[in-house]
Amino acid sequence: MGSTLNTIAHAICEYVKQLPQGTTLNVGFSGGMDSTVLLHALWYELLREPLCQLRAIYVDHGLQPLSSMWGEHCRDFCETRRIPFVSLKVDATPKPKQSPEEAARIARYHAFAMHLKTGEHLVTGHHQNDQAETFLLNVMRGSGVSGLAAMPLSKVFKQACHDRPLLHVPYKDLQSYAEYFQLTWVDDPSNNNKEFDRNFLRHHILPQLQKRWPAANPAIVRTSQLCADDLQILQEIAQQDLSNSLLQLKQLTLTKFNQLSVPRKRNLLRYWFKSLNIPTIPKKRLDTFLAQSESPKSGSQVQVSWKDWTIRVYKERIYLTPRELNAPKMQEFTFASQHPLGHTTHLLRCNMSSKGLRKPLKNEKVTLRFRKENMRVHPESRGRSQTLKKLFQEYQVEPWMRDVWPLIFYNDTLVAAPNLWITKGFIAEPGYQLSFEYE
User: Fold this and answer.
1) Which of 265, 327, 320 is nearest to 291 (CA)?
2) pTM metric for this prediction
3) Of 25, 176, 225, 265, which has the maximum CB count within 10 A?
4) What is the largest CA-CA distance in the chain?
5) How many degrees, rounded to 5, is the angle at CA 343 between CA 337 and CA 344?
């Protein structure tokens, strides 16, 4: 029993020592055995040396009839030890095609994120068995190195951190700890539901693996650690490749991109999407894009869409754009310093310059509109009028941007296309300089 206590006490002591003094630790406290051992071990360590502040957070998913009673059990546990306690109620109703497990997890972590302040830490009781289960679940999902790295000991979580100090501790050690200190905990009946994938692994698969290979769990965890090391190397390579290829936040140069091997291309794109908080592209669609982008046909667009995003190749560049780009309706326009448009992150800026668009006359209504068929305009720099279609081509405006490019009208006269031209007869000194920014 002494070695078990030492294992957990050592893990908690080492964890607390590396934190800045005064850090607030928010324990995700479900009332189950794992989180009970974690909370008790932290409380016990901080009694000895109060380097950090401790708080327990119970999330009531409302999925079990006894959930409110579990919350009271958690409150009593904390009051007995004078641990500050917070109870949060969430709606964990699954969305279409969403499992109850996933819905509960998302609701729980959203509640944690909303409650934590900048610089605080969320601490959860995940242990070695949980890590082995996560690894095997990700194997069954066909995950790559990122999934096989499973759960990290610590990671950034919104404005805070999420830590798992018991991640390398076997489940049996937590059991022994709980029994030694005569801790009481709640049992969630859903943990015995074999319909859930994780429970199926826990009750059927892992016991068989451990029967054949007693060191199965530690071996799986070692493999996940090696995958985590490999993942870090891949991320460092992707960061270098992105730096070499990046033209703008959501644009890459095709020439540099195509100098990479196919695995490095995949690695770069996945890293790029993740850095922009964009969902991972399915492998089949990613492979389709890579095959087409290798040698795009002259004058044609390569594009592949998933979720709310589209990745395209056009004129030696790779573009990442929203899947739907819909121009807003005509709207009145005032020459403010910033005029956000109604789609994506596009922004129209305006400032006075030594030369630019003249101010409207009192009888001239200013509107912001978008392209329609057969529109013509005579830019100041041109000898004659031309169609917008022809002008957009000459100014090399990307095809998907032409219908959402803002146009400024005085009454019914098109007087300016920001970044591109001012209509003949509408330039003044000083005047408005209009610039259109988009990503």
Assistant:
1) 265
2) 0.80
3) 25
4) 92
5) 90
